[in-house]
Amino acid sequence: MVGAYRHESWEWQPLFTSIPPFCRAPLYYHFQQHMLVVAPSAANRNRLLKILNRIHPAKEQQQRLQIGAERLALVLKSCRYAYDALADERIQECFTSWLRSLPESSTQNLLEIFQYLGADQFDPSWMEGWALKSRGYFVTE
């Protein structure tokens, strides 16, 4: 489930482990996870890059995303744990630059792409089904 996006207090951090199913996470984490999944296969990587670059108007940012994805594929070959590859500063610079420069009008397109890839948008009503009636407050009844 995609959570925060472009929130003031949120920091752009590398993803260090996989996002569990039905877990709320920032859009950038879903972006990293999808890039990590497709990076080893050149065909899958290029297919996703083509889809993502259609929604970004800046040619230099499209090239930057391509460079970041190719670097991720190379770094993955030398990592014992795949998510360690996302700690690479040059990869993070490419990915954050692409996502930060994405126009607001394209954000909905990006959410639709990730929904197709399996990252559902967060629905607050899902929380009501298993939340405590006390909402976390101490109750003396």
Report on the structure:
- With 141 residues, the chain is an all-alpha fold.
- It has one domain (27-128).
- It has 6 helices and no strands.
- It has helices at 27-38, 42-54, 59-76, 89-100, 104-117, 125-128.
- Helix 2 (42-54) runs antiparallel to helix 3.
- The model is unreliable at 1-5 (pLDDT under 50).
Please tell me what the overall shape is: globular
Q: Any idea how many domains?
A: 1
Number of helices: 6
Mean pLDDT figure: 81
Keyword list:
mainly alpha, single chain
Set down the secondary structure blueprint.
Elements: H1 27-38, H2 42-54, H3 59-76, H4 89-100, H5 104-117, H6 125-128
TL;DR?
The protein has 141 residues and is mostly helical. Helix content is 52%, strand content 0%.
